[in-house]
Structure formats: C-alpha cells, structure tokens
Amino acid sequence: MTDAADLVLTNGEVHPLTDADETAEAVAVRDGEIVRVGSTYEIDFLADVDTRTIDLDGRVLLPGFIDAHTHMEALGKRLVHADLADATSPDEAISLLAERADELDDGAADREWVLGFGYDESAWDESRYLDRGDLDRVSETRPVVAFREDMHTAGVNGVVLDRLGDRLPPGDVRTENGDPTGILVEDALGPVRPAIAPDRAETRELLVAAQDHATELGVTGVHDMIRNSHAPRVYRDLDSAGALALRVRVNYWSDHLDAAIETGLATNHGSAFVRTGAIKTFTDGSIGARTAKLTEPYDDADPGAVNGEGGDDGTTGQWVVPPAELRDLVERADDADLQVTAHAIGDRAIEEVLAAYAATDDPGGARHRIEHVELPFDGAIDRFADLDAVASVQPNFLKWTDEDGLYDARLGDSRRQRSNPLRELRDAGVRLAFGSDCMPLDPLFGVHHAVNA
Predict the structure, then answer these.
(1) Are residues 336 and 361 in the same domain?
(2) Each residue of 64-103: b (16+ CB within 10 Å) or e?
(3) What phi-psi label fits residue 252: left (phi over 0), alpha (psi between -120 and 50 degrees) or beta?
(4) Which residue range is the domain that position 146 belongs to?
C-alpha cells in the first residue's frame, strides 16, 4: 500500500514545466518531496485523515523559482531599514529617510546610522542622485547613507564625509567646484560598507526577513553574492536548525579566494540546502552610474570627466577590477576547481571576461559565468556559445530600456535597442541563468519583461 501524502494540492492548473504544453490538476507531497503529479481524482487516493489538503480552486501552480543572482542581505536591509524603492521623487526619498531617523531617535533600534536602500532616480521627474544637501536635511548629527538600487552609487551626508573623508578614494567621490557632493560610486563605497556592516545577530534578522519575502514570491532557491559578511555562517546555522526554507548557493567574493583555496572549498560542496558556488568578481560598474566599461562614450557623459586608475577617461566608464587582475583571478580560481562568475555589463568588460575564460582549459565544464551581459560587443554572442560559458542575465533590467528611459539617455537609441539581447543569446544556444539582482526580487516581474520587452 502506498504511504499517504503529507500535503496534496488539488483542483489547480499545474505546470510541471517538463514540457511546455503539459498541465495537470493536482500534486502530492511526502517528506518534503513531490511524489505524484496528476489529476485530482488520482491524487485524492494519496490523502488520508492526516493529510493537509489545499483546494487551489483553479489557481495556477508552478515549480519554485531559482533566482540566479541575489543580494539577500541587502534585500533584508531594504525590508528592515528605509525602503526607497517606491519613492517617486527626491523629496519623498528624503521623507522616508527622515521617518527612519525619527524611529531611531525614538529608540526603535540601537543603531546610529540612518540607512536607505533601493532608490531609482531614473523614474523621477527630477532625475538626479541624492546628495549631501538632501541627506543633511535628514540629519546633521547622525550619519546618513542612501544607496541607489544598483548598489554602485550612494549619497551620504556631511557627517559621513567628515568621518570617512580621508579614507574615500578621490577618483570615485563626485565633486562640484572641488567640493565633494556626497555622491559616491564604486570604490568610494568600500569604506562605507564595513562602517554599516551588521553583526551576526543582525545578519540573521536581515536574512530571515529576505527569506520570508522570497518564499512569499515563490522563490525556493537563490545564488547569493556574498562579501565580507556573516551570511555563510548564518545560512549554515539556519540549515542546522531546520529554519532555512531556501536552497542557497553561496558565491564568495574574490576577496575570499585565498581563504577558499586554503580551506579546501570547492564548487558544489555542501549540504542539500547550502552549497559553495562560484568566486564572484567585478570588472566594471553599472550603466545607471555611468561606470559600466564601454568602447564608445556614454551619450550623456561629461566630456571633462576623468576617473579611475591612471586617469582613465570617465566618458567610457571605468574598470573596477582591471583586466590583468581579472585574468590572474580567473586562472587561480579555475586551477582550484572553483567556478568563476564575473560582473560585466559594458562591451569592453564582456570582451575581457570572455578572453580570460578562453584561457582556461574548459570554461563550459567549469560553468564559468558572466553576470548581466547587458551590452555585448559584436561577435560576443557567438563567442559565448563557442566557449559554452553561462550568461547570467536579469530580464528585469529591461525596465530601463524603453524609449526616453534611463538607457536611452545613457547609451543612445542604437545601443539601447541592442542591450540585454536575451532572445539572441538563447537562439545562439548560450546557456542562460535568470536572476533579479534584487532589483526587485520578483520572478514574475522578470518573466514579464523577458516575454514582453
């Protein structure tokens, strides 16, 4: 006699996704595993008095989503601190930050810093970054930081500039008439991150909040990008306690490559719920911050802009990790049997990553990835296919590619229209992984843009 199911879901429109046209009505689950997919009539035979039964009443049921590019700790910060994602203007973002400052002044949490996350100025009528003047309005006594959605740009108030000013690399501190505006990009965020880093207890609070949000949206697995964080320990603690509802692939930042090699970590090692993934690195920045590395200048670049090492021309973006350093990192990680996943958005950056992967013995077998692949150079897609490298893309970024949108302003019409070429990558046989970068973490939002853009 077949054992009864613990859970059955009946009277639904079930899409197993094993075949594009296949549907069913019901699903049975036992001991955390799906044991049968079929008709309501068939599945009802697997229910007994102790089985939990959910009548879907015609609703659609899908397998859990795997988000291949997340920042769960940062998502948790948006949920716990000031969430600026829905702000429609600089004034509204400032108001949300001021509310958070008032909460802290009233003792809501034992924290000094006022933090906000996720604003997107490209959707504002007054399209500009938050700067020192804005954030001084929030507080002139507490340090205040407002991170742009892409996490490559942040605004800070005068308290932060006074406290961290001598540690901020000048090339990534935006100035006006020689004075810092409070707008920081790329490496200038380096000193800010450890100053606001949560301890292990707060990291657990953030990750649990992010996990709850993800599971509400049907996400059951994440590839999490982790740097200088308690998150790997917290994930394993949650796993040991039976409190982890997500399967987590931990992608360690390249800062941790030496430690990973010394401790013998290898890609795919771990438990059923927490596994070592890739070594993650940057190459360039983002289109929104004008730091993605391009061959030709940004359409809206400041002709006098110069930033980066060696006076790199700021009109074409900048290297966050220079090509020579990237090649060395890829070689060392590959020799240690570690997958590499490299952030590359601009055409110049994508070209350099593909060249670094081509120098390894078997990039396809190692499943080396490029994150974002927003503006591949001519011939890049064929080279992707030849190398059998993985394109880890974010279809939700297509929200910025509309005419008169952010990418139209930054790139111009021609480059805007050929950005994020998901169909071309698929048609060329390139292996795709879809993720959100938590901008936002919402799989159906990404599916919408993938299908309709």
Answers:
(1) yes
(2) ebbbbbbbbbbbbbbebbbbbbebeebeebbebbbebbee
(3) beta
(4) 80-195
Pick the last residue of a domain from 169, 195, 221: 195
Give the pairing type, strands 7-10 and 26-30: antiparallel
Q: What is the rounded CA–CA span in Å between residue 275 and residue 266?
A: 9
Return the closest-CA partner of residue 30 out of 53, 11, 7, 9.
7
Q: List the one residue out of 335, 334, 342 whose CA is nearest residue 369.
A: 342
* CA proximity to 213, closest of 73, 18, 419, 14: 73
Structure tokens at 304: 């006098």
Contact 144, 135 (CB under 8 A): yes
Pick from 315, 291, 295: nearest CA to 303: 315
Q: Tell me: do 183 and 277 sit in the same domain.
A: no
- Please indicate, yes or no, whether residues 229 and 284 belong to a single structural domain of this protein: yes
Query: What is the CATH number for 110?
Result: 3.10.310.70
Instruction: Kindly report, residue by residue over 2-55, the tens digit of the pLDDT.
Output: 789 999 999 999 999 988 889 999 999 999 899 999 999 999 999 999 999 999
Q: Report the predicted TM-score, pTM, of the whole model to 2 decimal places.
A: 0.88
Tell me, yes or no, whether 42 and 26 share the same domain: yes
